[in-house]
Amino acid sequence: MSSGPDANAMGANAGMAGADHSAAVVAARAVVAATRGIHDPIVLIDGPSGSGKSTLADAVFAAWPGRAPFLVRLDDVYPGWHGLERAGRHLALSLVPPIERGAVGAWRRWDWNLDRAGALEHVRPGRALIIEGCGAFATRPGSRQAVRVWVEASDGERKRRALLRDGGAFDPYWDVWERQWRRYVQRASPARRADVRLRTTGRGWIEPRLAARPAPAHPARPRTNVGV
Description:
Largest sheet: 6 strands, mixed
CATH superfamily of the domain at 29-76 and 127-208: P-loop containing nucleotide triphosphate hydrolases
Helix content: 25-40%
Strand content: 15-25%
Mean pLDDT: 83
Structural class: alpha/beta
CATH topology of the domain at 29-76 and 127-208: Rossmann fold
Shape: globular
Number of helices: 7
Low-confidence stretches: 4-20, 210-228
Number of strands: 8
CATH architecture of the domain at 29-76 and 127-208: 3-Layer(aba) Sandwich
Radius of gyration: 16 Å
């Protein structure tokens, strides 16, 4: 599965191709604004395949004030094409809870070339953490330290984007992945828990989705208005 670059190693601007940079920057600023008042926030970027999550994660990383956050992409965690929900459960046990306690978290990288588990990665506390990918909200469903960002696109647009991005590697697995995604959505209703909702248009722009929002996940602070 295609994944965005390791932001710590390669920089956060890769992955912007095909999307309007200024629109992504505006969306990223709305996400950063939603984290104000949270010490070492955890930003969870969820949504269906091809919706623009990696592009947004790159923009949030680049726009982050102060010390750069850690960026974990679920594309690097899924244990194969049938592992969407297993990746979320893995991070919900080994990465996010330790970070919230001020301890070192860990996650296991998946080697897509060898189709087997790869290196164990460690994440130290004391910095913001971004987790992006299908099923990201499942990595810490009840956390008050998390800001949940939902990115969506039309079915036709996101399929076009996803298959073009992977250069044919995704084609045989699209239906397999979609079935897992739809099971996750039916079970967890992730969009209803979003603090920020964005939509990727046919031009590749990430724009606010002006829809009714649920009650704030963080009662002590108002929900960010993403109509930027």
